[in-house]
Amino acid sequence: MAYDTNYTGQKFKVVGTRPLRPDGVDKVTGRARYGADAFAPGQLVGLVLRSPYAHAKIKKIDISKAEKLPGVKAVITSADLPDLTNGDSGMYDILVNCMAREKAFYDGHAVAAVAAIDQTTAKKALKLIKVDYEVLPHVTDVDAAIKPGAPVLHANMFTDGVEPKPKKASNIAKRTEFGHGDVEQGFKEADVIVERSFKTEQTHQGYIEPHACLANVGPDGQGEMWVCTQGHFVYRNQCAQLLGIDAAKLRVTASEIGGGFGGKTHIWAEPLALALSRKANRPVKLVMTRDEVFKASGPTSSTSIDVKIGARRDGTITAAQATLRYQGGPFLGMWAELGAMTSYACYDLKNVKTVGYEVVVNRPKVAAYRAPSAPMAAFAVESVVDELAAKIGMDAVEFRIKNAAKEGTKSSYGPTYGPIGIGPTLEAAKNHPHMKAPLGKNQGRGMACGFWFNFGGQTCTSLNVTPDGSVTVSVGTIDVGGSRASMGLIAAEELGVPYEDVRCVVADTSSLGHNDMSDGSRVTFSSGMNTVIAARNAKKVLIQRAAKMWDIPEDAVTWEDGYAKPAGANAGNFPPLSLKEIAAAAANTGGPIAGHNEFVADGAGVSFATHICDVELDRETGATKVVRYTVIQDAGKAIHPSYVEGQYQGGAAQGIGWALNEEYIYGKNGQLQNAGFLDYRIPVCSDLPMIDTVILEIPNPNHPYGVRGVGETSIVPPLAAIANAVSNAAGVRMTHIPMSPPRILKALDEKAEKKAAKAKAA
Amino acid sequence: MAGVHVSTTVNGDAVDFVCEPGEPLLDVLRNRLGLTGAKEGCGTGDCGACSVIVDNELVCSCLVLGAEAEGRKIETVEGMADGDKLHPLQSKFIEHAALQCGICTPGFLIAARALLKKNKNPTEEEIRFGLAGNLCRCTGYDKIVRAVQAAAAEMRGA
Question: Which of A684, A687, A690 should one mutate to test binding to chain B, selecting the residue with the greatest count of B CBs within 10 A?
Answer without folding.
Answer: A684
